[in-house]
Amino acid sequence: MAFRVLLADDLYFMRMVQKEVLEAKGFEIVGEASTGTEAVARYEELNPDIVILDITMPEMNGLEAMKKIFEFDRNAKIIICSAIGQQNLIVDAINAGIKDFIVKPFKPERLLSAINKALTE
Length: 121
Description:
Blueprint (H helix, E strand, L loop, with lengths): L3 E5 L3 H13 L3 E6 L2 H11 L3 E4 L8 H11 L5 E6 L3 H10 L3 E5 L3 H13 L1
Parallel strand pairs: 1-2, 1-3, 3-4, 4-5
């Protein structure tokens, strides 16, 4: 059975890159979101095994979405994938319980490593 992934990033291109990398390794992309609000709704609807979440998104940023997802499911596995320069936000996210942080632009191996680590914890 393939692990089910939700991709949340306001940039379509970034979601497509992540999707290509993950599908090539057998992951199932069960949903995509371009806003934080959408990410929360999709999580509640789809109950994925893991979420790849950007910080900078419209309507609700990734950290707010992360908190809402954790309110719904304290055991959610969330990886933040965002641009550098948001160090204070990264610390907040790690303290809140994310599994890892990936800096954009990322290497495919880094994304896969973070997901595999999160899924085996």
